[in-house]
Give the backbone structure.
Amino acid sequence: MSRQPRPGALYLCPADSLDEGRARGFDPYGEGRDTVLVARWQGRLHAWLNRCPHLDVAMQYRKDRFMSGDGQHIVCFAHGALFRPDSGLCVLGPCLGQSLQGRELVIDDDSAVWLVNVPQAACTL
Ligand code: FES
């Protein structure tokens, strides 16, 4: 299946590769690290910058380990902050009441997941 480039968008993955209660990291800006995470929660996909509002650090403890064991929260493994996967709101931890920074996704007719509104320079990588 070919992927048609979309202006201002970067292809991430097939939607069915993202399991319920799990998240994956992506490097859409070519920085050599996962700067965006996509979580599936209650059937819907949500994208967030991988930066904790507490100390502005990456949140996973190893590749693609962003979620709590029960799949109900995104976790910052630095100090244990818990975030709602749908709103990005911190509901427990040192950044209580602050939120992750969201990113916009589109799922196309081929069930491909695209990160949209990406700076054009990143789209040429
Ligand atoms: S850096 Fe994320 S909870 Fe402290």
The domain at 19-103 is CATH 2.102.10.10 (Rieske Iron-sulfur Protein).
